[in-house]
Design a protein that fits this description.
Helix content: 40-55%
CATH topology: TIM Barrel
Strand order of the largest sheet: 3-9-8-7-6-5-4
CATH class: Alpha Beta
Radius of gyration: 18 Å
Shape: globular
Number of strands: 9
CATH superfamily: Aldolase class I
Order of helices and strands: EEEHHEHEHEHEHEHEHHHHH
Number of domains: 1
Strand content: 5-15%
Distance between the termini: 33 Å
Structural class: alpha/beta
Low-confidence stretches: 1-11
């Protein structure tokens, strides 16, 4: 970091650490609840998160209109005030639209793009490669590839990831599979050209042990202090201590298997005093049983 005219400037070229996947608070009229989102960002930064990721899976990007997406990114950039990098999700079924989104977010002041491929019809590997390549070439900021074999009809195969790793600003990958061996295979094939972030489907401490640089995940929204503590312990190489903390935090992830991800995170934030509302329809809100389970988990880890 450096000081310029009395202002603290944070150098954000290398992404690492805990990047909470932010929720998207939307009121009943479809407007972004800017004050709620700003306060959430401020509180997350105050406990030491290393970056913010709007429009990830927890942010319900697939249920938002383009104006809503733009507004959310604007609010997060304003709230961050340059203190941590903002990596915004770009998701589309077409290259043209994805490129437009990426360029817009770069112009708004994003520090990176989380590139997500949506598809209705299956796409060839060459088509998948072309999609991510076009996004990378459209902007000058770093790209984080997003891969989720469980939800994406056309996903990133390891050969395509290897091809994309040779594009200079494709520097990171967030893997939301539950296959830890796949992570090791990716690390082996990219040979240091890309860094790996874990998701909530993985055990973060284990990913750090393999060589990951952090995690981009929804749980960090409701357990930011604990997530940052775990990351720092992993960085120190205190693996026995890290796994002790990791075991306690894993109860949150177990709840996500039973309930809608956005519902769990929004429910947890509601319990913590943030009026973020329910998941966007037609998704179901968190059930009373779900609220009780999330509440117990948050109390257990000291986040409530």
């Amino acid at each position: 970091m450096s000081i310029k005219k009395g202002i603290l400037i944070v150098i954000k070229e290398n992404f690492h650490g805990v990047f909470p996947y932010l929720v998207s608070p939307i009121d009943t009229s479809g407007e972004v609840k800017c004050d709620v989102l700003e306060q959430l960002c401020e509180d997350l930064i105050s406990v030491g998160v290393h970056g913010l990721t709007p429009l990830g899976s927890t942010g319900e990007f697939a249920y938002l209109s383009w104006p809503q997406r733009q507004r959310i990114v604007e609010v997060v950039i304003k709230a961050a005030k340059g203190r941590v990098p903002v990596v915004a999700g770009v998701a589309s079924t077409t290259i043209t639209d994805a490129v437009t989104q990426a360029r817009t977010f770069e112009q708004l002041g994003c520090d990176g793009i989380l590139a997500i491929l949506e598809s209705y019809f299956p796409i060839s590997e060459d088509g998948v490669y072309a999609y991510f390549k076009a996004i990378a070439e459209a902007v000058s900021i770093p790209i984080v590839l997003y891969t989720n074999p469980s939800f994406q009809r056309s996903d990133l195969s390891i050969p395509v990831i290897e091809r994309l790793s040779h594009i200079s600003n494709i520097r990171y990958l967030k893997d939301a599979s539950s296959n830890t061996g796949r992570l090791l295979s990716i690390l082996n094939c990219v040979q240091g050209r890309m860094e790996i972030f874990a998701a909530s489907a993985h055990i973060p401490a284990c990913v750090m042990l393999l060589g990951g640089v952090g995690w981009m995940a929804g749980p960090a929204c409701i357990a930011p202090k604990q997530s940052v503590e775990l990351y720092e312990i992993c960085r120190q190489g205190a693996w026995e201590e890290a796994m002790k903390l990791q075991r306690s935090l894993w109860i949150l992830n177990q709840s996500f298997v039973k309930y809608n991800l956005a519902a769990c995170i929004k429910g947890g934030l509601e319990l913590q005093g943030y009026s973020v509302g329910s998941p966007l329809l037609p998704q179901s809100p968190l059930s009373p049983e779900g609220f009780l389970e999330i509440k117990r988990a948050l109390v257990t880890i000291g986040a409530l």
